[in-house]
Amino acid sequence: MRFLSEVKVTLTNVGGLSGENVIRLRKGSVNIIKAPNFAGKSSIVKGLAALLSWPISDNITAEIAQRLGIIDKRGRPEPLINIYSDQASVEIRSDQEVRRANITRGSIISEQPGDEKFLITSILSPDAEVLVRINEADVSWLIDKLSFANRYEATKKVIRNALVDAKLNLERIEKRGEEIKALREEIDELKGEKERLSNEIKGLEEEASNLPPLDPALVERRDWLTKELDRIREQRERLNDEIRRDKVDIEKEENKIKETKKELVDILKELKEVEAELDKLIKGEKKKELDEAIRKIDDEIGELQKEALRVEGELRVYEGALNIAVGVKEIRCPLCGKSVIEVSTLKGIKDEVKARLLRIKKDITEKQTDRNLLQGELSQVEDKIKQLGKRLSGLTGRKDNLEGSIKRLESDIQSAQSKLQAIQKQIDALDAKYRKLNEELEDVEKRIGRKDEARRRLYEKISELRQELGKVERSIETKMNELETLNRIEIEEVTVDTDKAKKVYTEWSEVLDHLTEYLEKRIEEERLGAVRRFNEGVKDLLRRLEFKEFEDVWIDEKGLELVVERRGGKRQPISSLSTSEKYALATLLQIAVKETYMPREPFFLLDGTLLAFDKERASSILNYLSEQASKRGWIVCISEVGGERLTVEYLTR
Amino acid sequence: MAKSLKELIVEDVEKAVRESQSKTLSQDVEKTLKMRFKDLLKGEILERS
Fold first, then answer.
1. Which of B21, B24, B41 is nearest residue A491 as measured by Cβ atoms?
2. E strand spans, A36-138
3. Does this complex have an ipTM over 0.90?
4. Which residue, A53, A236, A282, A543, shows the most beta carbons closer than 10 Å to its own?
């Protein structure tokens, strides 16, 4: 397939090029950019490389960009700008698209982002990474950069850190679980003690009831008081359980509120952003500018069309006059009808008018292309406004729902808290009643005891045991509260019980383990895939370029090292190759890298590298590149010293 | 059928690897993890409480 469309490259104040410089390149061709030294050949390469690779974020590509003179040490594109100017621009204009970058000292602004891999794959210059690193047999950097392996590696690192955190949290929760277990055992022991004391009291009370009868009224009062006190204790315990349960419920509701409020904050933030964006689009300058620019272009097209009609009329007059001027040397001027004009002069005038008409028509076509681009941009802005409006309405609805939920939850909590207060009041009342009745019971028992020594001792013992029972009960209550606190754990500002926390972190650790395994598999697949693709490409290239000094060149799949084999299967370390062989190997690698990893990007830039080869080899490389350019629609640019000014020669197969 | 957390997180990470810029890749993956962990926690608190 042959691609021969023209690509217009405009570089303004780029590097050594001052003012606007236009070069015309051909797609499907090798474009040899010839110029004397210091005439801006490298600035063309730099400008194109910047446009096609920006933004640059990776360390290795940033180093290459620095070496090529695209950015300075701080990552700013200052070296690209001509020293007598404050800004520069690069534009590539073809039939299909316009790519443009405006370069200021701080940054490059380009609507269509480039691909920073361009700097590794598509430039061969003395500063190219492949050439700089040719002595290292290890090409893992290349494989990792050109595949997704290094990105998976970076991701794996993040996952590993998250996994360490999850495991630490799990350990913390398990330790807490052990503390809870110990506390539960203590509570169980205390409950056993409580049961033992209750049984002992019951036994002694039975013993007391078997003693000879006393004042029946006192006995009746004592029995009633004992039962009443037991009833109060049970009731108090029930109410305390209820309080504990209600507190857990309130906590759950509070968690829900926290979650909902967080979501609401996100929604409000998003809402604000969308509103601001919408406001900017509706009230902002962009739409106005586009409308204005389209109106202006329409006016210009209108003017040009009028001009075209006028010139067409003029042309018709000249053509009509020339049609009838057969066999004569002079005729009357077809415009004024008075003076006499030579036919040859009239032909010259007609050709000039025709050329003018073509220029006007070309201008109209260019303006219409610009208008279509602007119209496209305007439609995008209008679509964006519609989309944002829809999003705004969705977000507002969600915001209202969340606010409603928060109000409902807050009201539920308020009711629950009122209920808690009421229960606490009941407990306080019961405590007061208990104290009063207990005093009365002690008094009754004393009165009973005074009449009988044995009975007195018995009741004293019962009273001691009851006090002990009270202590045990209070201790159980304190420990139950401790257990409740210990059993709650805070994760991401939300409180959950330890069982749930353990479940969450166990599941999370499993997910992260699975993800780590998946990433390891992907890293291996990416590396292997990239190596195999490269090896297939380089084998074919070696044969096509007739590099007879190497029998075979490949990357070892396991060690990711470049292997060079001489005739007879003898392997040679790269560092021991001669300088010209290293150069040849780097060229071979660079072309293979371009073909394998970035064949769809048409630009391939060779700056000053072919000078290193003898004529035969340079010609073989040129022929090969020319064939590839024609086959793949590439725009191969080769800079060469020569001529008196900057020119472009085209080599097409 | 609804996707499992393992499947969802693999999808998120793949998206970040393919689409994030090198400079923000780690941050983007961290954000994804945080979000998915919160989802897991939220599910545990709100649905199973």
1. B41
2. 88-93, 98-103, 108-110, 123-124
3. yes
4. A53
